[in-house]
């Protein structure tokens, strides 16, 4: 770790047909790409166990004191990504991989019936849905280990947590598509934490005072799973020929701006001149 703000990402362990849980694969992928130089990412695999889940999540908040915790689960039979707004405290009747479920069927006895994340997941989902990605807002996390872990983290982390259900089928199961999408989603959530008054802030905005476009790009690879319509808003595309753009202002790791020749990003160069 480099001393920056800590973001924790968890994925679940083996469960039924998933000898390696897709959520844990995604967490390891996020560890590789990171969130920039100013953010330390810590990943942890969580067994599909009520007792172990409580132990690990309590330890995360007590020892790492993260700025934000992102819990990844798998949406069986779905090809979409789900952003969960709410964690539920009761109704846990299904047994875990150890054959156990809480006697009280509660996550935290005496706790509120439900807790919402400080992040406006509806706003995040709307932004990405409008860009053509398969991201869906949800308020029902399923009342199993994903929901259980989410509520427990919201409770101990002053609601500074997210639960993202990743797909088990479809094109987004490919790491090349899923990991960049998750990276962008989490960046958007972190931006909202820093400026909660602007949950609908655009992912990219143009700067008409200079012959450049301000873009949040971590690396060329990070664009792999993002459709072209999400990369450049229509008003930027139409303005590009008039501005005669020759460079992009890249907001790279650590969110420090560097000038990048358009020719180094041939797919982006096509997007700019296509307007």
Automatic annotation (TrEMBL):
Q: Which superkingdom?
A: Eukaryota
Alphabetized, the UniProt keywords read: Cytoplasm, Hydrolase, Protease, Thiol protease
GO MF, one annotated term: pyroglutamyl-peptidase activity
What phylogenetic lineage does the species belong to? Eukaryota, Metazoa, Chordata, Craniata, Vertebrata
GO cellular component terms attached to this protein's record: cytosol
Q: Which residues form a coiled coil?
A: none
> What is this protein identified as?
Pyroglutamyl-peptidase I like
Keyword match Hydrolase: yes
Q: Which GO terms describe its biological process?
A: proteolysis
> Could you tell me which Pfam families the record lists for this protein?
Peptidase_C15 (PF01470)
Tell me which family the UniProt entry assigns to this protein.
Belongs to the peptidase C15 family.
């Amino acid at each position: 770790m480099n001393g920056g703000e800590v973001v924790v990402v968890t994925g679940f362990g083996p469960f039924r047909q998933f000898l390696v849980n897709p959520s844990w694969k995604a967490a390891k992928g996020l560890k590789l790409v990171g969130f920039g130089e100013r953010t330390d990412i810590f990943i942890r695999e969580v067994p599909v166990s009520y007792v172990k889940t409580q132990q690990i999540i309590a330890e995360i908040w007590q020892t790492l004191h993260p700025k934000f915790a992102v819990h990844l689960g798998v949406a069986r039979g779905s090809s979409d990504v789900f952003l969960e707004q709410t964690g539920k405290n009761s109704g846990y009747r299904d047994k875990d991989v150890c054959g156990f479920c809480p006697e009280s069927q509660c996550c935290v006895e005496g706790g509120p019936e439900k807790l919402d994340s400080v992040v406006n997941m509806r706003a995040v989902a709307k932004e990405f849905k409008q860009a053509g990605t398969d991201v869906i807002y949800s308020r029902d996390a399923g009342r199993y280990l994903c929901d259980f872990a989410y509520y427990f983290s919201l409770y101990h982390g002053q609601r500074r947590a997210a639960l993202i259900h990743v797909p088990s089928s479809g094109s987004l199961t490919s790491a090349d598509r899923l990991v960049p999408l998750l990276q962008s989603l989490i960046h958007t959530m972190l931006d909202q934490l820093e400026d909660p008054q602007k949950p609908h802030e655009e992912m990219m905005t143009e700067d008409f005072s200079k012959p450049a476009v301000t873009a949040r790009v971590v690396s060329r690879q990070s664009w792999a799973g993002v459709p072209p319509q999400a990369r450049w808003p229509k008003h930027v595309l139409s303005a590009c020929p008039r501005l005669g753009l020759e460079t992009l202002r890249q907001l790279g790791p650590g969110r420090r701006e560097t000038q990048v020749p358009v020719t180094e990003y041939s797919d982006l160069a096509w997007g700019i001149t296509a307007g």
